Amino acid sequence: MILPITAYGMPVLRKVCRDISPDYPDLEKLIEDMWETLYYSNGVGLAAPQVNRDIRLFLVDSTQVFDNNEDDDEVQHYPDKPGIKKVFINAKILNYEGREWAYNEGCLSIPKVREDINRPETIVIEYYDEAFNKHTETFNGLTARVIQHEYDHIEGKLFIDYLKPLRKKMLQRKLNDISKGKVSVDYRMMFPK
């Protein structure tokens, strides 16, 4: 089932999310619905707060970045090609490594806003998969960036939080419009009341 995406201004997007256990109600169905929602909305990552759940769960499918940008030489030369498709539960980033680099990011919860955001090139992350097997892995390139973006969601942060105050002020009208439902997208959204 395709779930509505929470829009900028929804309180759940600013919550530090809680860990879950393997007996979280209907977890398998939630993950299935989140994958369906991710693909329907043409995203590359989706975090539980974006479907109005305050839990430490997010999905990443960075393979789509490479598949959808086959003509972009820069994208095709990132070290993490062909990308990953994974579920991350109760994730904790253990280490950020490498130089910071800029990339133009967007977010399904903040539609029609894209900004260059600096993030470290490599991360080490500990997480559980959907079967609650524990992993500690290192990711780099675009995959590390997508993971960091989704990880921020479960920490109550948004990519616009990295912008300089003046740039954020310049976007305030767009952000206010989004929170009031004055935005047109091809997917279902849930707006603050």
TrEMBL record:
Gene Ontology molecular functions: metal ion binding; peptide deformylase activity
Catalytic activity, as annotated: N-terminal N-formyl-L-methionyl-[peptide] + H2O = N-terminal L-methionyl-[peptide] + formate
Pfam families per UniProt: Pep_deformylase (PF01327)
One biological process term in Gene Ontology: translation
Leader sequence segment: none
Keyword field contains Iron: yes
Binding-site residues for Fe cation, renumbered to this chain: C107, H149, H153
Active-site residues from the entry: E150
UniProt keywords, alphabetically: Hydrolase, Iron, Metal-binding, Protein biosynthesis
Cofactor dependency: Fe(2+)
Record flagged with keyword Iron: yes
Enzyme Commission number, as recorded: 3.5.1.88
Cofactor binding annotation: Binds 1 Fe(2+) ion.
Task of the protein: Removes the formyl group from the N-terminal Met of newly synthesized proteins. Requires at least a dipeptide for an efficient rate of reaction. N-terminal L-methionine is a prerequisite for activity but the enzyme has broad specificity at other positions.
Family listed: Belongs to the polypeptide deformylase family.
Protein name (Swiss-Prot/TrEMBL): Peptide deformylase
